[in-house]
Design brief:
This protein is α+β, with helices and mostly antiparallel strands. The chain has nine helices and 19 strands.
């Protein structure tokens, strides 16, 4: 791989503002990577909810889509940023741009390795390109799986600095609604303040899930918003709402595998009278077998490049959860960098070539045999 050539392509891809509110730019990013891969592959295109995606593999020719020994998964959408973040710039070993770390550079490396090895490997691999991961992934990865795409092992190129992510947290978005009774604030005994009721419930939730002082692998709750339609100082608010973002690991005793109704019942146990729970998005956690042959091969490949290959846990949700739901092991393995979703996001250029070589070694060394249970 020619690093400078790849960085030139990265500059062009990073300049595409492929955010959720710009469907044409997301489609342009997808077409760019398809052109980057080049001809000679079967390209299946998908679209759901206005989000295009694609699946590439060698062969095909009108025959049945194979079960892939390995799938490379990459998302090409990014979160919004200032206009200047879509003008990539180099500063020493750092390439700054929105999507540099998360995860357009990894996507190009995955695409390059796929293009070079898919035609010559003794087993089928797929390259899955999606454009909606940052807004949930349901119309990209989840949609493709629902259309029958399947494999034995998945490498998702989210950033990891060549460490291997075998666990990531699930999420719950919920709202707490409190009702009270309006009245004149000069006579508080005549009303029932919904904000006070809501605050009591929030205190109970945060007593059960206190904000940690540092990184910890347990369930956390973020109070993202508190609001009331009240617009006057001298009025007792009759309604109030709080938004909560909950992140939970696979080991949590209360949330994994529960239905939205069961999750609502769990959080209702913290509610004081006058407060109700409304469940929004629910996404399961993800876990892959840390002792599998594929994970071991990926670790060996990373270590051969001078990186630790250590296990890393992700506190954020990723598309790996969709594979986990379908009984497919998926890991996150990507380049290094920092500043994800922030104003100074960058990729560590020094990790790009080791990442390329580790992926190449991983695919070449991976046994092509049948599933262990066959």
């Amino acid at each position: 791989m020619n690093l400078e050539s790849l960085l030139g392509s990265a500059d062009e891809l990073l300049a595409i503002a492929s955010t959720a509110d710009r469907p044409d730019e997301r489609r342009r990013a997808l077409d760019y990577v398809l052109d980057f891969v080049g001809p000679g592959f079967t390209v299946e295109r998908f679209e759901a909810g206005g989000s295009p995606s694609a699946l590439l593999y060698a062969g095909g020719g009108g025959g049945a889509r194979p079960e892939f020994r390995v799938i490379f998964n990459a998302h090409l959408d990014v979160v919004p940023g200032d206009p200047g973040q879509f003008a990539p710039r180099r500063d020493g070993d750092r390439l700054y741009a929105r999507g540099a770390q998360d995860m357009k550079v990894s996507a190009l490396v995955l695409a390059r390795v796929f293009a070079e090895l898919a035609p010559v490997l003794p087993y089928p691999i797929g390259l899955q390109l999606v454009t909606d991961e940052e807004v949930g992934g349901h119309h990209g990865t989840r949609h493709q799986l629902d259309q029958g795409v399947t494999g034995r092992f998945v490498v998702i190129g989210e950033y990891s600095a060549l460490r291997v992510v075998t666990e990531s947290k699930g999420l719950v978005n919920l709202r707490l609604h409190a009702k009270g009774r309006a009245g004149h604030s000069a006579y508080p005994w005549l009303g029932d303040n919904a904000l006070v009721t809501l605050n009591r419930t929030l205190n109970a939730v945060l007593d059960a899930y206190p904000v940690p002082d540092g990184e910890v692998w347990r369930t956390t709750v973020n109070v993202a918003r508190i609001e009331t339609p009240n617009e006057a100082y001298n009025q007792i608010p009759a309604r109030a709402t709080a938004w909560l973002d909950v992140r939970y690991p696979p080991e949590d005793a209360d949330l994994p595998g529960r239905t939205p109704a069961q999750i609502a019942k769990h959080f209702a146990s913290f509610c004081v009278p006058g407060t109700t729970v409304e469940i929004g998005a629910v996404a399961p956690p993800h876990r892959a077998d840390p002792e599998s042959a594929e994970v071991s091969a990926l670790q060996r490949a990373a270590r051969a490049e001078g990186h630790s290959g250590d296990f890393l846990r992700k506190h954020g949700a990723a598309d790996a959860r969709f594979y986990y739901q379908d009984g497919i092991d998926a890991v996150i393995f990507g380049v290094g960098g920092d500043g994800q979703h922030g104003p100074d996001e960058y990729v560590d250029v020094r990790t790009i070539e080791p990442y390329y070589r580790a992926l190449t070694r991983f695919l070449r060394d991976l046994p092509a045999g049948p599933r262990p249970d066959h």
